[in-house]
């Protein structure tokens, strides 16, 4: 009998936990809608109204505003990576892949400008938060790019030691350019993607040429180095 009671208690506890998680997710989505409608300086009153509940109900599911901010930041990371991961892993010509990665990032901040500012500015928080959502996003993207760059550099028999700092430099450049563009809107997203892709491609092309490798920017590149040869040729015209 005791085991049955314990089992029933555990089942109820799991159901209640699932309910709370579902409600938290609903309130996070409501917060994102409120941020989109009212801007990054949104308040709890607007969020509660969007969620269709009172503020005390929100505070039963989030310890404070900072807890809600971190939950929204986590959801923002998921939204970003939903676009970035397919772009980074997409096969195709290197120039097109570079542009696709850049444009994927810019598309997220263009579609969610107030959410981006909400997360970056942290003005919603009511206490210091140790978790830096923006930094974590940059590190996630840079880590994925570093692996990709390292794989290709090793495939070209080049030193891959610079892959990680180069990846972080590229991420920082694109983010800073995106911040400027989001505020200025002096060109289209397509134009900015083209400009940044051109700069990144020529940096990579120069790096490869310094090692005697010429890569066709319009030639498809494989993602599986164990089954496909890497399409490259030496600058002197000899096939590698």
Ordered list of secondary-structure elements with their pairings:
Blueprint lengths: L1 H37 L5 H8 L3 H7 L3 H25 L2 E2 H18 L1 H9 L11 H23 L7 H22 L4 H22 L2 E2 L5 E2 L11 E2 L6
Antiparallel strand pairs: 1-3, 2-4
Query: What average pLDDT do the residues reach?
Result: 88
Q: Give, in order, the helices and strands.
A: HHHHEHHHHHEEE
* Count of separate structural domains: 2
Output the CATH homologous superfamily of the largest domain.
Tetracycline Repressor, domain 2
Q: Strand fraction band?
A: under 5%
Category by helix and strand content: mainly alpha
Parts with pLDDT < 50 across at least 5 consecutive residues: 226-240
- Assembly status: single chain
Lateral strand order in the biggest sheet: 1-3
Helix content: over 70%
Q: What would you call the shape? A: elongated
Number of helices: 9
Question: What is the straight-line distance between the termini?
Answer: 74 Å
Characterization of this structure:
It contains nine helices and four strands. By secondary structure, the protein is mainly alpha-helical. It has two domains: 52 residues, Orthogonal Bundle (Arc Repressor Mutant, subunit A), CATH 1.10.10; 161 residues, Tetracycline Repressor, domain 2, CATH 1.10.357.10. The strands form two sheets. A two-stranded antiparallel sheet has the order 1-3. A two-stranded antiparallel sheet has the order 2-4. The longest helix has 37 residues. The C terminus is likely disordered. GO terms for molecular function: DNA-binding transcription factor activity; transcription cis-regulatory region binding. Keywords: DNA-binding.
